[in-house]
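Obj.: predict assembly geometry.
Materials: sequence records (below).
Method: joint structure prediction, all chains together.
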Amino acid sequence: MRYELCASQDLPQGKSRAMEAGGKKLVVYHLSDGFYATQARCTHMFASLGKGKIVEDKCVQCPLHRARFDIRTGEVSEWANFPPGVQLLNVVRGEKALETWPVTEEDGHLFVEM
Ligand code: FES
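Observations (raw structure tokens):
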């Protein structure tokens, strides 16, 4: 299914925004080569990636324990490492990629395919 998200001008390059589509919460990102969408919750301990930061036009860094995910693929590029000691938790909360969906731009509007 294809869902309309917002006007593309409402999401400037280098920014991200939490949204909902098809009953799912997602985060939409505007990188240098286009728009991308990932699930909204971190796979480590479910923190909101809508409050995360975009690093080097490539990754979203979780605001809680600083795991980093490749926005384009959802793959883990660095697992939770903050604060020191969180690694103990990682024994039961192992690396898991984010779900991603393709985003297209058409007539100044963004659409996600889910
Ligand atoms: S909740 Fe995201 S890294 Fe722990």
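Conclusions so far: The first strand starts at residue 2 and ends at 7.
To do: check interface contacts against the pulldown list.
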